[in-house]
Recover the amino acids of this structure.
């Protein structure tokens, strides 16, 4: 006997993957945990006859020779499967889009980082040209949209989008989909957002404004990440965190959003046992006695993160090519030509006294002026940046003053140059690891 199963609190991606499993493994029995997520429960109450599944009680474990696990890779996430764990000769097949280490020890697996697990299975269904009913296509699309936030979550890939297209070609019904996919921002989310806004405070950490808000939550609430996202937008802070406390479970979920490179949410959340990327992330923290201590921990990480984050000094170019104020304009022109740059700092005794750029040469009206010293033409509006500032700040200054290069100055001495391309390297993540 073969069975296909997924994680408890089954979501649409897990459920869709179980059903997709019945297409790829026609002899296998689909097995759903009793604990289903409320949306899936609502869907099944209407579509039960179309998707026949069994529960653990109906299965004779002695007869099971093969288990296909989808959308999870841990024994602990499966419901009442302990008996199978020690079973000899049990062949395990794994389909999963989570990247953590599996303890299932599968004989065969397809484990890839992708927006939704169903996308991996659609790849195979497509390849083998299996027929999909419109109902199956609809269910699969619900799973795909739920796990990828309608293809907006950063983990979504091009292949997820192609899979969505394939399901629409196979007559996935968007009306049904809208009924079962919970509105991302509904009454519950609105109430939480309003409560957060009422109790909002701002904290200054170095040069950044951060808001950390602790909120008690009753029962299950979806899309808290969207709430934190909106909260940050409305408060207009550099980074925002929601600490959502489940009193009855003694657990907390911390969700963070950042709009600046200097506060890396993924880094902070990984330190708390969660995950994410620079702009967004979360961490689940069990057995929390005091949410206040959690807030302190977060503040500590934020302060630490500041030092660990990328600074101008990591990106700037040095040594700096510079000219002295008494150099003639003609020799400066030659120097600029030779170095192939658009401008140079003018330095006297290691101190920045001005900047000369190609643009300044337009001020020259007579050829005799080429003999004049550079100090007569240089710009003395010395816009500089300190080495411990963030690349984001450097970019802001460049845009504000319409300059392509920014001298990096420490204790009055010029130690490097930050150019637009240095900033680009950072923003497009071209930094060597
Ligand atoms: Mn999933």
């Amino acid at each position: 006997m073969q069975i296909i199963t997924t994680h408890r609190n089954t979501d649409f991606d897990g459920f869709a993957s179980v059903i997709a499993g019945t297409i790829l493994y026609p002899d296998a029995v689909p097995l759903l945990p009793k604990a289903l997520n409320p949306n899936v429960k609502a869907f099944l109450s209407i579509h039960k006859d179309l998707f026949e599944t069994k529960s653990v009680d109906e299965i004779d474990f002695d007869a099971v020779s093969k288990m296909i696990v989808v959308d999870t890779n841990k024994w602990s996430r499966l419901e009442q499967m302990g008996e199978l764990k020690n079973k000899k000769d049990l062949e395990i097949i794994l389909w999963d889009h989570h990247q953590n280490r599996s303890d299932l020890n599968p004989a065969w697996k397809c484990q890839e980082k992708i927006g939704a697990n169903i996308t991996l299975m659609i790849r195979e269904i497509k390849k083998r040209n299996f027929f999909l009913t419109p109902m199956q296509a609809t269910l699969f699309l619900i799973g795909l949209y739920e796990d990828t936030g309608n293809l907006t979550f950063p983990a979504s890939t091009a292949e997820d989008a192609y899979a969505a297209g394939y399901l629409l070609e196979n007559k996935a019904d968007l009306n049904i989909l809208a009924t079962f996919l919970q509105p991302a921002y509904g009454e519950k989310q609105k109430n939480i957002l309003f409560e957060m806004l009422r109790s909002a405070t701002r904290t200054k950490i170095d040069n950044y404004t951060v808001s950390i808000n602790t909120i008690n939550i009753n029962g299950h609430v979806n899309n808290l990440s969207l709430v934190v996202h909106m909260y940050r937008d409305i408060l207009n802070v550099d980074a925002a965190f929601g600490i959502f406390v489940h009193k009855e479970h003694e657990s907390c979920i911390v969700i963070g959003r950042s709009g600046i490179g200097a506060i890396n949410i993924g880094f902070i959340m990984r330190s708390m046992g969660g995950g994410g990327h620079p702009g967004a992330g979360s961490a689940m923290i069990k057995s929390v006695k005091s949410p206040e201590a959690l807030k302190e921990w977060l503040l500590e990480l934020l302060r630490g993160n500041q030092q660990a984050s990328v600074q101008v000094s990591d990106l700037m170019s040095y040594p700096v090519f510079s000219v002295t104020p008494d150099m003639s304009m003609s020799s400066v022109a030659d120097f600029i030509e030779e170095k192939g740059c658009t401008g140079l700092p003018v330095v006297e005794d290691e101190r920045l006294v001005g900047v000369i750029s190609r643009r300044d040469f337009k001020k020259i009206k007579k050829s005799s002026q080429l003999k004049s010293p550079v100090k007569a033409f240089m710009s003395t509006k010395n816009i500089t940046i300190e080495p411990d500032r963030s690349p984001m700040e450097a970019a802001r200054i460049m845009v504000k003053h319409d300059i392509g290069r920014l001298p990096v100055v420490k204790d009055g001495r010029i130690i490097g140059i930050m150019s637009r391309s240095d900033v680009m390297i950072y923003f497009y993540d071209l930094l060597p690891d």
Summary: Residues 187-309 form a domain with the Diaminopimelate Epimerase; Chain A, domain 1 fold (CATH 3.10.310.30). The chain has a mean pLDDT of 88. The chain has three domains: 2-180, 187-309, 314-427. Residues 13, 71, 97, 116-117, 147 surround manganese (II) ion (CB under 6 Å).
